[in-house]
Amino acid sequence: xxxxxxxxxDTAAIFYTGYxxxxxxxxxxxxxxxxxxxxxxxxxxxxxxxxxxxxWAQGEKELSxxxxxxxxxxxxxxxxxxxxxxxxxxxxxxxxxxETALDKAIQLDPKNLxxxxxxxxxxxELLESExxxxxxxxxxxxxxxxxxxxxxxxxxxxxxxxxxxxxNKAVAIINATDFDAELPVVNKIKDEGVIILKVALPYxxxxxxxxxxxxxxxEALAGIYFALGDYETSNYYKKLADAIK
Length: 245
Prior knowledge:
The protein is mainly α. It has helices at about 10-25, 25-40, 45-55, 60-75, 80-90, 95-110, 115-130, 135-150, 155-175, 185-210, 215-225, 230-240.
């Protein structure tokens, strides 16, 4: 790219030279020119987008995150930078960072149900790994799934995952019961577990209606009915599950 005046740096020309090098897969030149444009305070979100992607391709993850975060601070509404960061956080297993990035993505696109489901799933994983914040992540996952189902009650993943969320909570309560405690205390805890199982049931039945041959759904229904003491119905779903190879 020819620069018109030797006395005046054309930052746009430098950026596009770097972009051309990126497209030609000449990463070394792309990094040189894009960083020069960055130092000269060239204003374009694509500068951060491409430079972040190049650093990631080079295996320089920390530099990639640094550039993308800088770009997001300057251009908080830029979906390309944000989605690129989301993909990198997923690949890198950085769940806390991913949670923050998904929160921002949902703020930009509040009607995007896929983003809400993704965040709910991440919160469920954090629920397991961040036990000191178990209540926070349970409530957050529950809220996100319900937001999705309020818009579309036939989203399978939201129904199934919400049913499992409640089921696991009920099982945890029942398993933690001290059966040597006084009977009224034991019964109260068991009743709490039963209430949560009954909350889980309609979501799992909806999931079954949407995907009646999904083995995981049939096994979950068998487990819920068994825990509720309805052994006949539990055996019915267990047989259906066993019939699926």
